Amino acid sequence: MERVEPIRSEKKIKDLKKYPLGAGNMRNYALIVLGLNTALRISDILQLTWEDVYDFEEKTFKTHVYIKEQRTGKDKKFLLNKNTIEGLLKHKRKLGHINHQDYIFSSRNGENKAITRHMAIRIIKESCAAVGIKEHVGCHSLRKTFGYHSWKKGVPVPVLMELFNHSTQAITKLYLGISQDDIDDVYRLVEL
C-alpha cells in the first residue's frame, strides 16, 4: 500500500466537502464527511448499513456506532458528530426510502451492494484533484486528516492511539504526518 498524506489545509478540507455538494452527489459528500469525522478505515466505512447509524424506531440518528473493525477484529465505538449526522442526513434525504440492511454507500450497480474500495479511492482522488489538493491522497488520507487535525488541536498522542486502535504510539506518530512546517511552528511557539 502506498503512503498517503493527510490534508493539512482547513480551507482545502472545506472545499473538498463542498465539491460533491455542488454536483448534488450526496453519497460522495457523506462518504467524505464520514471519513473525515470518524477516523475509520475505508473497509469499515463501506460495510456500514443504515441500521448501524440510524434508529428506525425512534426515526433519528444514533449518537454512537458500534462495529468490529475488519482489519484488526477489534470492537470499536465511535460518536457521530454534528457534521457526520448532517452528511448522512443529506444522503438519506436524497435517497428517500432506506431499509435497515441497505449499505449506506451503495453501488449503483446491483441490488444492495456497497461501492468497492476502488470506487471509493476514485471518488476521493477525483474530488481532491478537483479542488486543488496536491498531497498524495487516497482513502487513508481521510483517516490521517482526522488524526492530524486532532493532534494540531492538542489531542494527546495516547488518546489518538486509542482512537485509532493502534498497538504503539510509534504507529500513531507516523499517521499524524508531521511536516517540517509543523516542526517550524514549535520553534516559533517556544521562544525562551
From TrEMBL:
CDD domains: INT_C_like_3
Keyword Lipoprotein: no
Domain (Tyr recombinase): residue spans on this chain: 2-188
A Gene Ontology biological process term: DNA integration
Keywords: DNA recombination
InterPro entries (alphabetical): DNA_brk_join_enz (IPR011010), Integrase-like_cat_sf (IPR013762), Integrase_catalytic (IPR002104), Tyrosine_recombinase_XerCD (IPR050090)
Alphabetized GO MF terms: DNA binding
Protein name, entry field: Site-specific recombinase XerD
Native source species: Clostridium pasteurianum BC1
